[in-house]
Each structure stands twice: as C-alpha cells, then as structure tokens.
Amino acid sequence: MTITAYPDAALRRPWAALPFWLSLTMVPVIWLGAVLGGAWVLLVPAYAWLGYSALDLLTGEEERNADPNRRDGLGWYRAITLIWAPMQFVTLFGLIFYATRADHLTPLALWGLFFGVGVVCGTIGINYSHELMHQKPRLDRWLGDILLSMVLYSHFRSEHLLVHHRYVATPRDPVTARYNEGFHRFFPRVLWQCLTSALGAERDMLARRKLPAWHRSNPFWRYAALQGGMLALAMALGGWLGLVLFLVQAFTAIWQLELVNYVEHYGLTRRHLGDGKYEPVRPHHSWNSAQKASNWLLINLQRHSDHHYKPDRPFPLLQTYGDDEAPQLPAGYPVMTAAAMVPPVWRRMMNPRVREWRRKHYPDIADWSAYKTASNPLPR
C-alpha cells in the first residue's frame, strides 16, 4: 500500500464529505423493513454486513491522507455527527411507537426489527458518540452522552477516555483482547470490567480533588438520569413490550461495539519496560484497515492506529498507514466482526498476523507468555 497526500482543495468541497453521509441511508432501510415486515426486517443487518463487504471489494482501499494539521473546511464532516443524535432518537422511539401497534409484525419479526435497530445504534450511534466525546465543544459531548444513553452504555465515555486510551495494550485495559481469547470469552469479561474500571476512574478523579465518589460532579449521576429517561420514554410509548424492544436494541448495540473493540486491538501489546512502565502508544499498537466503503460508513474508525496515536484528531483528518508502520487487517470491519463470532475462523485469520507483528516490532522478546495472559505488572 502506497500512501499519498489528499489534495487540500478537494477536502474543502462540500461533496467531498458526501460519502460519509451514507450512514443516513440506514434510516429509510430500517423503516422499510418495519413497514414490509416478515423477513424484510433483516434488511439492516444484510445492508450493514453484506452490502458494505461487497462495496469494500468494489471500491478497494483509500490510500490518501489529508493534511493532519488543518482545522478549517470541516463543517460538512462535523455536521453528520451532530444531526445523527436527533435522527436516531426519532427513529428509535418512532419505531417503538409504531411496532408495538403494528399487527403485521410477529414476535419473531419484532425481535429481528429491533436487532436491526441495535445494529444501527451500535454501528452508527455509538461510533458517532465516540467521535463526539473526543471533541472539545460542549454540544458535541452532550450529543455523545445522549447517544450512549439510548443504548444504556453511558459509562463507555468514562471508560474510553480515562482508561482505554491511557492503558491500551496493557493488562489494565479491559478491551484489549488477549491473544487466543475468543470473543465469547471476551464479551462477558469486558462488560463487567469496563463498568468497574469506569467507576474506579471517576472515583479516583474525584478523590484527587478531595471529593467523595457520590459527589454531584460524578458523571454517573448524569448517565443514570439520561438512561432512566430513555427507559421511561420507551415504556410510555410502547408499554412493557416497548421496554423489551428497547432492551433488545440496546444489548445488540453493545454487542456491536464490543465486537469492534475486540477486532481493533486483538493480541497487540505495548512493551513492558520494567517497574510497571510501558512504552508510549504508537500506530503499531492498533489494527489498521484502509477499506474505503466501510470507512465511509464508520467515519474512518478503521484508521484506528492513528486515532490512538492522536486521539483528538477529527475523523476526516485521521491518517492511514502502510504495512511498515501499522499492522493491517485482511478486510474491513464488516468481514472481521463476522469472523470474530467464529473463534476457529478468527484464530486462523489473525494469529499468524499477530505472530508476524511480534517478529517485526519486537524481535528481541523471546518469552511472550506474560503478554499473552495479561499477567505483566499493571501500569503505574
């Protein structure tokens, strides 16, 4: 892969951002499935996984990088992340109101429909909240919190900003998947550890200010209020069935998020320097994927190597890397998340790549046992 510079003038044109607006097409697709019913409720999962896997094959890789230091001319890129929260809110609760009163939707169709809603809220909603939480404007951060509350995963903000970015690729990061750890072992572990690590990180921040964990400035109070409001609204619009459907989509969205987390860092570790110290984060500590179409859908999330290297860099400016600087996934996230659900397939695809990564970046490390089991000393 040969990396080239993206023409600066081209990035300024409004239509340059247009491919990233493809995520909005998820909304009419999910409504079409709801109206048609039957097997049509599976339109969204088919569109997200099969459709974008096919588009990746057709469009290939994006090997160009924008100037990472620019900050003007990005309004059309930011706009998509700002309008998504109200769109998702109307779609989610509109579907709860509609589906609980639709005679043509069987119980199985209802489950399939809200599984699809969860795919939308996880693939797009949580991903956009991830972009928003890293930005400085208060509006962006509030919209990020609202998106996370719609899937009952508000603590992801605390865990991601205070734990994951600081401790990625070390034993203290819950979402760095260990070598040979299958997703079905990873998922229940990470659900519990992310919550406890987020609570601990916020408690420790308050303690440094000599404040108790239950102080009103603890964002968990805000998280609880927002999530409680979402649950109450689902109940008000759809009764107990509406509440169950809300929980189905929330669980699906969380599963989608953690599938992506699993893929992004599987088997990659930072060198332990001794005495609880670890080397700084570099691009080679996250998997990179340059597939063009799935990066449109995921607003460059697959340029994850650069995101961890420069976490506050807006998504249009994230850089892709060649093989010499960052490890490359063999396909985009739609294919890789599907593979992760079948551990023998996943290990066959990824374990040789992890071993090659070790030989390339750490040829002097002979014993990887502590890295494999995450039993190195915890970072200080």
UniProtKB/TrEMBL annotation:
UniProt-annotated location(s): Cell inner membrane
Fatty acid desaturase domain ranges (all copies): 108-337
Swiss-Prot/TrEMBL keywords: Cell inner membrane, Cell membrane, Iron, Membrane, Metal-binding, Monooxygenase, Oxidoreductase, Transmembrane, Transmembrane helix
InterPro entries (UniProt xref): AlkB/XylM (IPR033885), FA_desaturase_dom (IPR005804)
Keyword Membrane: yes
Membrane topology value: Multi-pass membrane protein
Claim: Transmembrane is one of the keywords in the record: yes
Domain of life: Bacteria
Family label: Belongs to the fatty acid desaturase type 1 family. AlkB subfamily.
Protein name per its UniProtKB record: Alkane 1-monooxygenase
Organism, as annotated: Jannaschia ovalis
